[in-house]
Amino acid sequence: MKFLIVLGSIIVPIVMLMLQGKSIKWRMVFNVASVLSAIIFGNISALAIYEILRDHAVFMTRSMRYF
Predict the structure, then answer these.
(1) Residue 65 DSSP SS3
(2) Cα dist. 39→32, 34, 55, 60 in Å?
(3) How far apart are CA 14 and CA 29, in angstroms?
(4) Distance of alpha carbon 18 from alpha carbon 23, whole angstroms
(5) Residue 1 three-state SS
(6) Do residues 60 and 54 make contact, with C-beta atoms less than 8 angstroms apart?
(7) Contact (Cβ atoms closer than 8 angstroms) between residue 9 and residue 15
(8) What is the dihedral of CA 34, 36, 41, 46, to 10 degrees?
(9) Is the pTM of this model over 0.85?
(10) Which candidate, 42, 19, 44, places its Cα nearest to that of 31?
(11) DSSP code of residue 63
């Protein structure tokens, strides 16, 4: 399974590079996919942080030393 993940992370970007060089449509598809991926990742991260803060599961430490 690890082999397939590593191989996929090498092969898929190479195929994407070749496809975007052949047609402007593929370039647009990959740009839209990247923006959607960034938005989805941001939302998932924000929701996870909100849940941690809501449940008071954050352990913060404060330095007691004053300089």
Answers:
(1) coil
(2) 11, 9, 24, 28
(3) 16
(4) 9
(5) coil
(6) no
(7) no
(8) 140
(9) no
(10) 19
(11) -
Contact 49, 57 (CB under 8 A): no
Tell me what pLDDT residue 15 has: 96
Q: Which residue has the tokens 């330095």?
A: 63
- Taking 70 as the pLDDT cut, the residues of the chain under it are 60-67
Structure tokens at 40: 């989805």
Q: Which of 63, 65, 64, 11 is nearest to 19 (CA)?
A: 11
Tell me the one-letter amino acid at 61: T
Question: Does residue 34 contact residue 26 with C-beta atoms inside 8 Å?
Answer: no
